[in-house]
Specification:
- The chain has one domain (16-274): Alpha-Beta Barrel (TIM Barrel).
- The protein is 38% helix and 18% strand.
- The chain is built from ten helices and eleven strands.
- It has helices spanning 32-41, 77-94, 114-124, 147-151, 156-172, 186-193, 196-216, 225-228, 238-246, 268-271; strands spanning 16-20, 46-53, 65-68, 71-74, 100-108, 128-132, 135-136, 139-140, 178-179, 219-223, 251-255.
- The strands form three sheets. The protein has a seven-stranded parallel β-sheet with strand order 1-2-5-6-9-10-11.
- Helix 7 (196-216) packs parallel to helix 9.
- The chain is globular, with a radius of gyration of 18 Å.
- The two termini are 32 Å apart.
- The structure holds zinc ion (2 copies).
- Residues 19, 21, 106, 132, 257 line the site of one zinc ion.
């Protein structure tokens, strides 16, 4: 595994990072320029910013904010404008130096979100929309202080049903390119439900989710952040990735889910072997 600051690419691998937060996300640090400089340093050819956009109106104590110049503003389209401007300006600055910078968001899914996702994509001409599923019935399952309350309402099968219903709805939304961290529910779900959660999720994905992802050409990412969070596999783990491939789902993008600049391109040298393309760029 490369040390911090070491180049992760060589001349035959044109690596891209399609899941990067910056300080417009309330849980991330580092400016857009700092992430871009890190990407160049590591030999990446493209970086796509995917700041959180969490606008579930019924979310219980959620993260529905965009941080603009240190101030937390509600996640509404108008407050995304400074982020959009900054990413586009970064593209103009860094492109001549051989780094392409793309404009994306990690759209926090909730039931009934399709129209809002489509409107947001169109309004800002987003290059990329990553769908992040972080809640079950309006409660976060990936925050340390709420997962217990979230999961204690459901048996494991019920939790997975609700999780997968959101994946299917998002895949059917034409604004969504990619489902982020497919088995992120195991972040705390493994602790809460035990390994049954992996079996139930795999089965449900094979029966109901993968056919929809394949039919709608909704991609999956290999999210390397799991390795930073003490797991021994990426999100998703290999059995899910293999089953997705067998079902004709395109596992295309690499994402570090960076929340600080030195996370960019984390473990990509190895993870790249799991994606369908070494170069996963959008068209200019
Ligand atoms: Zn996420
Ligand atoms: Zn993320």
């Amino acid at each position: 595994m490369p040390e911090h600051g070491q180049r992760v690419g060589d001349s035959s691998l044109l690596l891209t990072d399609y899941h990067v937060h910056c300080d417009y996300s309330i849980d991330a640090v580092g400016t857009i320029d700092e992430y871009c400089s890190e990407a160049l340093e590591r030999g990446l050819v493209e970086i796509c910013f995917t700041t959180h956009y969490d606008a579930n109106p019924n979310s219980v104590g959620g993260d529905g904010f965009i941080r603009v110049k240190g101030e937390d503003l509600p996640a509404v389209p108008k407050n995304l404008e400074p982020y959009v401007r900054d990413v586009l300006a970064a593209h103009d600055r860094f492109y001549p130096g051989n780094l392409s910078v793309k404009l994306g968001v990690e759209f926090g899914w909730y039931t009934g979100a399709s129209a809002e996702a489509e409107k947001l994509r169109e309004e800002f001409g987003l290059d990329y929309m990553l769908c992040g599923i972080h809640e079950l019935e309006n409660l976060c399952f990936c925050c340390a202080d709420s997962y217990d309350k979230c999961f204690s309402r459901f048996k494991v099968e019920e939790a997975i049903d609700r999780y997968c219903d959101q994946i299917i709805e998002a895949a059917e939304c034409k604004a969504v390119d990619t489902i982020a961290h497919l088995d992120y529910i195991r972040k705390y779900g493994l602790k809460f439900y035990g390994s049954a959660i992996d079996d139930v999720l795999l089965q449900k994905c094979q029966e109901s989710v993968f056919p929809v992802l394949a039919a709608t050409d909704t991609k999956l990412e290999v999210n390397t952040s799991a390795m930073r969070r003490g797991f021994d596999s990426y999100f998703p783990r290999m059995p899910l990735l293999n089953a997705a491939r067998r079902a004709g789902v395109d596992v295309k993008y690499l994402g570090s889910d960076a929340h600080q600049p030195d996370h960019v391109g984390f473990d990509f040298e190895i993870a790249a072997a799991l994606t369908s393309l070494n170069y996963a760029g959008c068209e200019d």
